[in-house]
Design goal:
- The structure holds two protein chains of two kinds.
- By secondary structure, chain A is mostly helical.
- Helix content of chain A is about 70%, strand content about 0%.
- The longest helix of chain A is centred in the N-terminal third of the chain and has 23 residues, at about 20-40.
- Chain A is flat.
- By secondary structure, chain B is α+β, with helices and mostly antiparallel strands.
- Chain B has one domain (about 1-45).
- Chain B has a two-stranded antiparallel sheet.
- In chain B, strand 1 and strand 2 (about 40-45) form a beta hairpin.
- The N and C termini of chain B lie far apart (about 55 Å).
- The chains are: A mainly alpha, B alpha+beta.
- At the A-B interface, helix 2 and helix 3 of A face helix 3 of B.
Chain lengths: ~190, ~50
Amino acid sequence: MDYNMASDASLVQEYIHGNEQALSTLITRHQQRIYSFIYSKVFDKDVSEDVFQDTFIKVINTLKRGKYNEEGKFLPWVMRIAHNLVIDHFRKNKRMPMFENKGDFNIFSVLSDDELNIEKQLIKDQIECDVQELIKELPEDQLEVLTMRIYKDMSFKEISEATGVSINTALGRMRYALINLRKIIEKHNLILTN
Amino acid sequence: MEHLYTKPSKEDQLKNLNPTKDTIQFLLNYSKALRITKYKQLDFQMILN
């Protein structure tokens, strides 16, 4: 069998049946794309190596356990694993921020105060106040759905029961409410970010 | 100026990235060493030396 010419699907089948050379071909074929994808997210070679390695360990384990089903394609599946591991990396870093040793140690690079300071709190209050004014410009039916969903935290099922319309109509009204809000924001040149 | 024009773009730099040979070798060795034994509904994972 010419491994270089073989499709991913047949290489995967070869590997599942115990042919280790098939895995080597698969890695060689896709390593650049997967590694570049990881690096483009984390911008650190050491972290990229780790994520790449963890990605293929997951791939190997899944294939050897016979849990892989050839529903989609091999590369998108591996990319999805890599993507999830990159997210895990950032989540882990958020809980335990990495300390970069650059000589001058700054305690605030590893310690941060999650609470908003006075300035940020003022900006947040102003934005919320602006948004409350903006939504008054929405048509009555959209305003009703948006208020119930965002301010009263009701589910779309509850909204549909309360307003007497179907869930799909409630979803549609919410969608149009957001579209119209964006239009109003653009029209008034408003910047509603902290 | 020449240096500016000949410098590869960020996209090109990303295209030419590859993992180290050690990482690839580790993965191939890991794969060769890994044995998964099924017993009823359990999977036993063994790393053979």
